[in-house]
Amino acid sequence: MEPGPDTDLYLASNSPRRQELLRQIGVRFQRLPSGCPQEVDEAVRAGEAVAAYVLRLAAEKAQAGWTCAAALGLPALPVLGADTAVAIDGITLGKPADAVAAAAMLKQLSGRVHRVLTGVAVVFEGGVETALSATEVEFKALSPAEIGRYVATGESLDKAGGYAVQGRAAVFVRRLAGSYSGVVGLPLFETAALLTRLGVELS
Length: 203
Known about the structure:
Layout: E1 9-11, H1 16-24, E2 29-31, H2 50-71, E3 79-88, E4 91-93, H3 99-109, E5 113-124, E6 127-139, H4 144-152, E7 173-177, H5 180-184, H6 188-197
Helix pairs in contact: 3-4
């Protein structure tokens, strides 16, 4: 899998949402092959703040991608990684393990304000650079039936906090203050500034 001549960046993520967002701002990237990088441990460390958590995971994912690309003998291009989490009541919510966990997360978010944080990291030959996005999201009050119907769609299962703002859960959002794209999974303002600082052109 040799990158094309116009490739400026490797993406260490299988997320179709992050791929779409990178294309939206004209980043010439190539996703690393399946299984590269290997998944990193996403457990929250004791006492770890949510901002530190998402920045650490973003950097670990990017570093794992850099290591994997080198092992495959690929040209040394910067590698971008990202991670998103939801924070409420001093708790970090990642992706729910199953439908029961997703429903519990949505019940906790119902009628309340929570924060969505996304860390972005780029590993390159000279080191690593990171950026952070934090957004406040307010949900309307959700009935048990609404939660049940939403969880039944399957949309919850690979999303931080158990919901996709760009999907059917858009109707849950009463107010959003910050980066919409950061809630989706890749804050475009912060990502573009980071890439520009590193000399990656946006076409």
